[in-house]
Amino acid sequence: MQKSQPTLLPNKNDAHKLLAQYGAADYRKNQTIFVQGQVADTVFFIQKGRVKVTVMSEHGKEAVVAILNEGQFFGEGCLNEQLRRMSSTSAMTDCQITSITKSAMLTAIHDQPKFSNLFMDHLLNRNSRIQADVVDQLFNSSEKRLARLLLLLANYGKEGSPPIAPVTVSQETLAAMIGTTRSRVSHFMNKFRKSGFIDYNGKIEVHQSLLNSLLHDKPRIREDEPA
Asked: In terms of C-beta density within 10 A (0-12 exposed, 13-18 middle, 19 or more buried), how is residue 99 classed?
């Protein structure tokens, strides 16, 4: 559960260490962090673990819109006059998460250049990811969308080159994130496994060969055709 709100102090040299110093609340796997419609007055930062973001339609249909990793902020909509949460969040793994009140967050952004730069980098990366997701949905097949999602979840190509990690997301969640059915995801997963792109035994081990395949997915020239 959330701990008492610390005051963000100026003159810190390392923004990441600054955030770590203010403690973090422990959330168990599947525990709710906040729910759609709740008052929005706090920004969160993931110290450890992974967080799922979902949205519920007025007809009761739930969609997974993001999976967030260590080092990412969420709930920042409250800084832009968002009075209520537009989504729900829950811990996908055991998590340690720092919570920062809106007023403390605005003070830190104004008074601490390194913290402000860290948060600006987050916003720019989030914006780029959203744009890439829109292009992915508009132009790529569900198979390519799944390949891209698996690579992102396994940390391929992320800034700072974090270690490659196994993917522990269910097929139902993967299907919800790429806009297809679980049976289609199962079909593609079996195809990836037979091609040696992944190993799948509870956890999904994503190999570099999947990235190479996605990057070099170009029409092949048949041998009996002129070059």
From this structure: buried
Contact assessment for residue 206 and residue 151, using Cβ atoms and an 8 Å cutoff: yes
* 8 Å CB contact between 178 and 145: yes
Tokens of 102: 């809106």
Q: How big is the CA angle at 99 (ends 45 and 149), to the nearest 5 degrees? A: 30
Question: Using CA atoms, how far apart are residues 90 and 33, in angstroms rounded to an integer?
Answer: 5
pLDDT digit string, tens, across residues 120-143: 988 988 888 888 877 777 778 899
Q: What's the length of the chain?
A: 227
Dihedral of alpha carbons 3, 29, 210, 217, sign: negative
Digit-coded pLDDT (tens) for 196-219: 999 988 889 999 999 888 876 644
What's the rounded Cα separation, in Å, for the pair 137 and 144?
10
Q: How far apart are CA 202 and CA 148, in angstroms?
A: 20
Secondary structure of the chain in HEC code, one letter for each residue: CCCCCCCCCCCCCCHHHHHHCCCCEEECCCCEEECCCCECCEEEEEEECCEEEEEECCCCCEEEEEEECCCCEECHHHHHCCCECCCEEEECCCEEEEEEEHHHHHHHHHHCHHHHHHHHHHHHHHHHHHHHHHHHHHHCCHHHHHHHHHHHHCCCCCCCCCCCCCECCCHHHHHHHHCCCHHHHHHHHHHHHHCCCEEEECEEEECHHHHHHHHCCCCCCCCCCCC
